[in-house]
């Protein structure tokens, strides 16, 4: 190949060298005959492999645990733990948490051994002694190629698994963003309306109580006009946090729009809902917020809220729209009768 042709090759291909070059790969040779170990090592030495040696099955397993070889060339018949047993242990622990995939070439001195028998022993390949070194070299190269392909496949699977996890994480983030009000961190109106339909149907199916609460911050426009919109945002966040902390974990709280919040209280009968609303109203009334003027002066700001609540089952509330209208009408009754109070829809 000319220098010009070499430069036109992709950089990765230039670095990788010839496709069949497996120099530097580790080959574990296992045989109770030191002369046979030496014979195999010398026959494979021209290929540039790194060799590890073991004289029995126990030593072989220790060598595998110490450092995963790329290939095992192993005698079948050895004292103590034989090649077949070691092979089965290696294959039984081929998962990522174990040894991983390590191809095994078994060597046998039994001339009658056939290919099927050799593979049935659990090996990826086999050779009958005495064997030609050219054949051994070809089998080793073939198994190392298989190992390289298996490792590449495993790496691709890891990358795909990571990509899938990342995709799922981003999908969950987008889902959360689509459901969340950016300012307060509460659920938004769209998600609330989806859940309202689900909870209403569940309440109707099981004849279980479901209360809907609408909350409005009293004189919020005055707060914005007096102290500015940034402080108004702080007020919205404080009310959202207070209401969320006061309600139960199972209750669904959302920002409905502007200074208005809405909540679903599953399994909350009228009196339960009324007590919950009073706790929220009192918690908001106890809030102490401090406004800081541009000149450094500060002023304490107190808040109140009005709440309207309606509960199903009720004869006059046969759908979600009717439930919403009843809670909204109750809210305006609370505001119209002096604010900082809870008004409950009466069926």
Descriptive overview:
It is a single chain. By secondary structure, the protein is α/β, with parallel strands linked by helices. It folds into 2 domains: 154 residues, Response regulator (Rossmann fold), CATH 3.40.50; 156 residues, Alpha-Beta Plaits. It is built from 12 helices and 12 strands. It has a 5-stranded parallel β-sheet, sandwiched between helices. Strands 7-8-6-11-12 form a 5-stranded mixed β-sheet, sandwiched between helices. Strand 9 and strand 10 form a beta hairpin. Helix 9 packs across helix 10 and helix 10 packs across helix 11. It is elongated. The N and C termini lie far apart (92 Å). It is an enzyme of class 2 (transferase). One of its GO terms (cellular component) is plasma membrane. Its EC number is 2.7.7.65. GO terms for molecular function: diguanylate cyclase activity. Pfam families: GGDEF, Response_reg.
Known CATH architecture of the largest domain: 2-Layer Sandwich
Number of strands: 12
Order of strands, main sheet, comes to 2-1-3-4-5
Structural class: alpha/beta
* Overall helicity: 40-55%
Characterize the largest beta sheet: strand count, sense, and whether it forms a barrel: 5 strands, parallel
Please state roughly what percent of the residues sit in beta strands, choosing from under 5%, 5-15%, 15-25%, 25-35%, 35-45% or over 45%: 15-25%
CATH topology of the largest domain: Alpha-Beta Plaits
Number of domains: 2
Report the radius of gyration as a whole number of Å: 38 Å
What does the overall shape look like?
elongated
CATH homologous superfamily descriptor of the largest domain: Reverse transcriptase/Diguanylate cyclase domain
CATH class of the largest domain reads Alpha Beta
**Distance N terminus to C terminus?**
92 Å
**Would you list the SSEs in sequence order as H and E?**
HHEHEHEHEHEHHEHHEEHEEEHE
Q: What count of helical segments does DSSP give? A: 12
User: What's the rounded overall pLDDT mean?
Assistant: 89
Q: Low-confidence stretches at least 5 residues in length (pLDDT < 50)?
A: 1-19
